[in-house]
């Protein structure tokens, strides 16, 4: 499903955080959104998820404005996960994942056999089947994040919006969750748009990066063109050393000083 943002101006009260944002993301793409703190990354995702109403412009899914969709219709097309979502006390993993089916169930109707098959598949694909009857409060951070992804998957969305999906996770769980998201994108064809702070995770898993700087799209293009010393110096104000991961061929960046500081000079070896 194609996602378009046209001339977005978005903010809080009368102050805009985003201004003049134009983005088009094709069906099945996996796109990372990067930028410094406060640049407007999360505001962009909240606007795409219809959590914020733009002061100007619109967001469209396959040409239809999200403002013209009912909440169930929107939820059938798009799933959105905020940073570190919480869950009610006593809720089991299976109950959480079952919430993803409600956009597909008529009002006051119970979940049917077809819904339970979708839930089973989501639990299995997100590797939380063995945790189905555990309470969410008893899970590790990585297990909880996989459970939330299973809930989103149970919506059977065409688009997933993920705001910092690996926040507060250790290195092993970061890799586990990112590999799961990549698998869902490739095997299900789900369009994935996610905010990431870790540039090396973005480089490893995203084919395209959108860079937000001071509320505008500063760069939008192939990851290999974005993860480079000149762009990262301009956007983050740091000097980086770029190497290639011998296993993946992807760029890996090592920040070694703030831009303009004393040391080895732009683009040099740390």
Folded structure, characterized:
With 270 residues, the chain is of the alpha/beta class. The protein folds into 2 domains: 3-227, P-loop containing nucleotide triphosphate hydrolases (Rossmann fold); 238-270, no CATH class. The protein is built from 9 helices and 12 strands. The chain has helices at 41-48, 71-77, 93-99, 113-125, 141-154, 171-188, 199-205, 223-226, 229-236, and strands at residues 3-12, 15-25, 30-34, 56-61, 64-65, 78-81, 159-163, 191-195, 208-213, 216-222, 238-244, 251-258. The protein has a 6-stranded mixed beta sheet, with helices on both faces. The termini are far apart.
Structure at a glance:
The chain is of the alpha/beta class.
Write the layout of secondary structure elements.
Blueprint: E1 3-12, E2 15-25, E3 30-34, H1 41-48, E4 56-61, E5 64-65, H2 71-77, E6 78-81, H3 93-99, H4 113-125, H5 141-154, E7 159-163, H6 171-188, E8 191-195, H7 199-205, E9 208-213, E10 216-222, H8 223-226, H9 229-236, E11 238-244, E12 251-258
Parallel strand pairs: 3-8, 3-9, 6-7, 7-8
Antiparallel strand pairs: 1-2, 1-4, 4-5, 9-10, 11-12
Helix pairs in contact: 3-5, 4-5, 5-6
Determine and state the CATH class of the largest domain.
Answer: Alpha Beta
Average pLDDT confidence is 93
What is the tally of helical segments? Answer: 9
Low-confidence stretches: 264-270
Classified in CATH, the superfamily of the largest domain is: P-loop containing nucleotide triphosphate hydrolases
Counted up, domains total: 2
Portion in beta strands: 25-35%
Percent in helix:
25-40%
Largest sheet: 6 strands, mixed
How many DSSP-defined strands? Answer: 12
Distance separating the two termini: 43 Å
**CATH topology of the largest domain, anyone?**
Rossmann fold
Strands of the largest sheet, in order across it?
6-7-8-3-9-10
Structural class: alpha/beta
Cα-based radius of gyration, to the nearest Å: 19 Å
Gross morphology is globular
What sequence of helices (H) and strands (E) makes up the elements? EEEHEEHEHHHEHEHEEHHEE
In the CATH hierarchy, the architecture of the largest domain is 3-Layer(aba) Sandwich
